[in-house]
Amino acid sequence: MKRMLALKQVLLFFLGSMIFLVAQDAFAESGKDEKKNIPIQGEWVEDMRSVSFECPVSVFWDGTYLYVESLSPRSTIHVTLSNGVENVCDETIPAGSCPATLYIGVLDPGQTYRLVLTNQFGDRLEGTIY
Asked: Which residues of the chain, if any, have pLDDT below 70?
């Protein structure tokens, strides 16, 4: 009888532990921010003579990281993120290294940040993070 009671307690302990771990994992996933597209404007032609209507560069932000993607391996991309007073991010992504993930930390809520991407051809894209 004591053996059966001990077995039930061990099973209940493992079952409780599993429920706790599953719940903890579910709450951890719900707190993560989704990647948000940052609309960017400007010209990015990489010194090409033909006109392309699609911008080969896109930028996403999840609240902590900036994700820079480029369809072209030609450009070295310089990324600057500023709050108007100081640069929060000032990084260079070598040509052919995209997609790239840049840590920018947690930005101040309610603050507006200006994102500028440039390359060695003189192209420039700008966007805003609110």
From this structure: 1, 5, 7, 10-32, 49-54
Joined tokens for residue 13 = 């302990």
Strands 57-61 and 40-43: unpaired
CB atoms within 10 A of CB 36: 13
Query: Please, what's the largest Cα pairwise distance for the chain?
Result: 86
The first and second tokens of residue 106, run together, are: 């947690």
Q: Is the pTM of this model over 0.85?
A: no
CB-CB neighbours of 47 under 10 Å: 11
Q: Return d(Cα 71, Cα 108) in angstroms, integer.
A: 31
